[in-house]
Amino acid sequence: MSSKAEGKAYDPRLSLGDFIVELESSGVGPVDSELCHLLWTECAGRARFAEAVLRAAATAGVTVDPGSAAFADWVVELCPRLSLELGAGDTAAASVLAQLSAVSETTALRALTAVADDLLGGIGVNDPEGVLVRLHSSGILTCAEDQVRGSLLQVPSLIAAKLRHELATTAGGGSAVAALLEVLIEHMESAGTVEPELLSDVLIVARHGGYWTQLLRVTEAVGIPMFLLTPRTACTAFRLLPPKTRANWPGLEFFGTLAEDIDADSAAADPARIRAAAIRHTGPGLLRSRLPGILGASAPGEDESGEIRPDGLPVDVVGTVRQMIGLADSGRHGDAAELGIRAAAKMPSVRGRSVVRLLTAIALHHAAQSRRALSLLNEIEGPARAGHIDGDFLLPAIIAWTALISAVSGDCERADAHLASAAEPSETSRVGAGTGSVAGRSETPPSVIIDEHVTPPLRIAAALRALDRLDLERAQAEFDALSAYPELRTLWVYLPLIARTLAVLSAKSESGLLFVNDDAERYRDSGVLSAAEKDLLAFGRSTVFIALGQLRWAELDRERLSPACDARIVLDVRSKLVAGRNDEAIACADTWFYHRSLSPRSRAELAAIRAAAKLRTGDEAAAQSDFMMAVSLSTWVSSLLPLALLPLTDRSRLVDLTADSPVWAEAASEFAATFASPAQLRERLRRIGPVSVDLAEAPQLNAGEAQLIDLLARGLSVAEIAGELQQVTGTVKNRLSALYRKFGVSNRADVLSRARSLGYLTQ
Fold it and tell me: Is this prediction's pTM over 0.70?
């Protein structure tokens, strides 16, 4: 690129006084002193260039506004070529820096080193620091101080606009701009942090030059937070994209439609309104409908509706996300996690990898692989925290899901730490609290984009930990807010679990507990449930039926639990206690207590149940010892539920027997947020859960009696039953009479009706 203007003399840099004299002598008329100073700054003291600008503006009849980028980009096209008192290398360097509004010296050096070589035919810039010094001394670079970013370098607006225009018409200029975008986007991808001003420059350059691949890479490196960082520019860069571009790049189609909706909603208003619109348009349930062609039936890499790499992976973050969501919707969480692990390893941007790995951790949680999920979340939390943008969902979602998975898997210390971290107000919530738009997490609309990955898991974790502390008011408040949330997907399974646990602990009558148990079924929502989610439903129902003394119904739900679910053991032992089979409860608890498959929390429950069973057998000393162990274990696992779920009569007696034990002081210290003293904790345990039955009134059938009921239900006569069992008819008649007495009836029809109502006969 030449620095001369078609054989004319250089346009030298003048002092402000000489600059004014030159303008007045040029015949453009008297110029306002303030405007003269602004022109002198934005034209870098080049009076002939300033004269051309004034003449072009006068000819077009527009007001001169040297500081306006729009005015500069328009007017320079009407001006002759720019002549600078610079060498070819410095002019090339200035043309590179003219693409950017204001940058740090580090970014300027990176850009010059990587890009100027394209403009100089391979000669390159051997002394980039010296170039910056020369450009600054000639006025082509000026310094500006920013409170956040420090000292910045920028090319004056009119000079920059002219250099950009001339570069666009110079052979090789397009490749230089592409190279500049490459180095800047690579920096965004690897750093994980983004400067809003630099992002704005990259978006404008990529959009104006039609560099669609680079524009897509920006979406990978920054994502939806670009509408928070540089709201107006992001809307401008992505709305009204060419139809072919949108058709060829699903990722750009996604951001294009989002930008147009945000722009229409905010009416291109101030940045705060655009940010608010971005949050609204990515609210609960809205973003999923924007993802093009959600995939669900195919395995990773099988679908041909989108662009796929040779290794079978989607080419971008949007493609990966849509396929992972499709697999999860089909209940294929293991496949979704596998796809996420493989795809994240191929992604160059820190942001893109973190988003995909977050979804991978969620898929692992649904696939009952909590340890792997927490490990993955821990890995991405640090980078997400370092590059966090206020209003973005990524860090809050990582915190929320870590809290939930930790609470479910028994890592209560980590759950509490992340719940406390989530309670710290963000800049958005602080501003909202001042304006009345955002007052607190319980009653306000979302303050982050894609809030459905933040609020539901956070509320579930808070509710579960409140139940652990027997803070029923907090648990109820979290439950009420959660049940009103518009989009839960398969997380709805926690609603019936929380509702049923609350009912067992607080219901005042059997009918109230029964009502909650039935009413909990209304929370069913969308999504294919994983085995772990089905276990939650079965566990909640079984717990309620045990509390009601309906042990057969409890057994039916217990049989639905996965074989590896240790809740089966606890529910079985608890049923034996409520059935009055104390010796069996003790023996079963002894058998499983030290088994490695048992979680610490389940071990605390077995200790409490065993204490109650020993108390019933009259062995108070052993019961007292076991209950103190149960209190210690409950303190260790940070949950009082193992104690609270015991029948009230047994629990109250055990609390009284151990009232002088030091274990209560330890427990009160662990649960100090809920209880002010050990006495207050013990008093809560004496009052909570008043409805749960001590002994089931329903008849308990052995295997032979259950078989006899089944034969009666099949309509077999006494003789036919005798043949089936290979017994004489007299024996069968005696067994039937004993069965009738156990149910309190006198004939076949009544025993079948009673057996059906108690769950011994099901469809």
Answer: yes
